[in-house]
């Protein structure tokens, strides 16, 4: 039996509207349910609007800066 990852990073496109946010939340909850992961992060090139960041925070999803691709692997090892 394999050990589930401690955290998952979802690379996301732009989060400009409610539809984008809804798709990301579906993905995050699916990952949590299927892998048993509690720590879900989203990585974007540009930071989402403040309202979107607030909603992500309410769902315990943190936003990572997408401008540092070398940190992607390091963050996943935690």
Structure description:
The chain has helices spanning 18-35, 50-58, 71-77; strands at 7-11, 39-44, 61-65. The chain has 78 residues and is an alpha/beta fold. The protein has one domain (7-77). It has a 3-stranded parallel β-sheet with strand order 1-2-3, sandwiched between helices.
Give the topology, please.
Blueprint: E1 7-11, H1 18-35, E2 39-44, H2 50-58, E3 61-65, H3 71-77
Parallel strand pairs: 1-2, 2-3
The strands making up the biggest β-sheet line up spatially as: 1-2-3
Averaged pLDDT: 80
Low-confidence stretches: none
Q: Span between N and C termini?
A: 20 Å
Q: What does the largest sheet look like?
A: 3 strands, parallel
Strand content is 15-25%
Question: What is the number of helices?
Answer: 3
Tell me, what's the shape? globular
How much helix is in the residues? 40-55%
Q: What gyration radius follows from the Cα positions, in whole Å?
A: 12 Å
Query: What is the ordering of alpha helices and beta strands?
Result: EHEHEH
The structural domain count equals 1
Key descriptive features of the protein:
78 residues; three-stranded parallel β-sheet; 3 helices
